[in-house]
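Hi there. Long-time user, first ticket. I'm pasting a complex I've been working with (about 720 residues overall). I'd like to know whether the download I got is complete or cut off, because the file seemed smaller than I expected. Thanks.
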Amino acid sequence: MTPFWAVVPFLVYLLLIAVLPLVAAGFWEHNRNKLYVAVAVGAPVIGYLLGEAPDGRALLWDAGREYAAFLSLLGALFIISGGVCLRGTLASSTAVNTAFLAVGAVLASVIGTTGASALLIRPVLRANEHRARSRHVVVFFIFIVANGGGLLTPLGDPPLYLGFLRGVPFTWTLHLVVPWAVVNGALLAAFAALDRMIARREVAPPVDATRRGAPEHGRSALRIDGASNLALLFGVVVTVFVVGTYGRRWLGSAAACSVAQIAAMAALSAVSLATTPTAVHAANRFTLAPILEVAAVFVGVFVTMVPALAFLAERGASLGITRPWQFFWASGALSSVLDNAPTYLTFASLATGVANGAGGALSVHDLGALAVDPVGHPLLVAVSCGSVFMGAITYIGNGPNFMVKAIAEQHHVRMPSFFGFVLWSFAILVPLLGAFALAYFGS
Amino acid sequence: MSILVCLEGSASSASAIACAIDFAQALATPLTGIAIVDEPDIVAATATGIGGASYRKDRDATLLADAHAHAAVWLHDFAARGHAAGLSVRTLELEGRPAEMILAELARHDVAVFGRDVNFRFETQESDRYTRDRILRRAGKPLIVVPPGAAPGASSVIMMYDGSAAAIRALRSFATSGLGHGRKIYVATLDDDGATAFERASQGCELLRREFAVAASPENIVSAAPVVEALLERRAKLGAGLIVLGGYVPSPLARLVWGSVTHGVLALSPVPVFVHY
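Hi, the file is complete. Here it is re-exported in full:
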């Protein structure tokens, strides 16, 4: 049995990720320091795995392999989507804004929430920059494009990709089409109603052009710069699907699959970096800093979560969380204040424990079995929905949230504060998810 | 006598500049324009999530550069208008918390002029009542709050006087400032009893005459309307282009429950308000 103390570094690390940007912003700013923290917190876990845990060495190796595969996909999506720039300006109408968010909801599941957000946020901001009030557009953009839209495929959101790396079939997430359509559809309807109401009340912005910068009233047709990257994005989708679905049959081992995928992602990323015009990267203010930060932080996540996941799988049935609606709210609540990727795996492991308590013999390393288990399937659906949808409740729930906020503020949209955004979430998103959970997961 | 003008990009700030120039011309005194870059709020620590640190850094740099650029434009515009009016003008760009920066600079000046709807924290906040209220409470010197669209060149002034220490303080500081020279001055008192109101207003006029040799006419106001409304109605009737009133600092709770006449006048007056807390 995994001792509780081995779980503590995971809890401490997640807490540090949330708190250090607030209390030690200067220190946390540097990726090198993030790596130091990851190593410091991960060291006891590595010691435990190498010294005490049965199969600890193999578990550590698997964690390293998963980390590399995870990072290669995130990196590829980030780099390639950073090479696509949507130029031009749309008319700012409720219909156009709603349609744009709807396209974003679909695109998020194809190129990931980060990629879709990076691609679409600037055109949305340009379209609405003459409006006196446009923060609601960005708030709903975070709800839909940066989070909820990514539910349909493992590429959509990092938690789902982590599940995919642990054996959830590529097409399994298509089972989530109803939650995806209901929640995003309801959000789009709410947005359309609110946007129409705000647009009707809007008067011309105050005469302070020197303060906010003169808006561009001219409209120009949309065009895509760096379109060759769309082919590379398609290559990412095909690679992940093919390796994930047929890799074991063709290549033999999980390690070989990981190597193949990492190599393919690295190649696609390299092609993108080499072929994307500098002007496109400049227009997107593209740098590798965000993905390097993700790489540094997730070192600690992948190491420290090994005993934590084992602990939950062993004791899951006794922790009192057994029903899908409980998994939905518990995974969602934690996803809103911690990053949703490790949260997903934590609760998927807990679900494994619950399924094992009901007579199953599942492993946290094969969530594919959980996905088809009669007890585990609804729990995994709930964890997937909770982690993805409720990553939108705060700016720190999912990676793209803060990116969208920062870009919006650079375009002079005064975004809500951290708690102001939480109020928006509790006013709109949480009640909507409550109604959805009641209807879909019951009680 | 030196006048500090607090600059930012609102319409009321533009009116404040025009009024400040008018006052400076009348008093033949130099003007100091101050623009604040609210660096502490722009770079304040915030939860960023994984991968957000570089976006935050980029965002902070953009907003800081934007704030500096706007400050430069406002200071340049202010200096140009001041020089065109034949005034001696000094400009200052400061980085820090707006209220503290303005209060520190006000210590070196006699009066501060700013727009009613100023937003010194425009990079991060929709509005900035906090800074305005903090300056009002902490200044200890007269302030002139100018609403958007207010025209300079007031020919008459109405001084709200209720005999309180705050009213006497405002009356004295206005008389000392010299801003009343060449303007018709009314001292107005509101009371349920017209005779009492007239007597108190006359006391205010007498104080002005005795201490500053300033002539003023008493005005009694008896009205069933709310206090602020009654005061502003009389101002409109007299055609006064400047209101003078004293203020005291009610607790936030008291202000919430009973309101504040000073804040009511500041919020609704169509002309500049000279206020001394």
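A couple of notes from our side: The CA atoms of residues 156 and 184 of chain B lie 4 Å apart. The beta strands of chain B are 3-7, 31-37, 89-95, 111-115, 143-146, 156-160, 184-190, 217-221, 242-246, 273-276.
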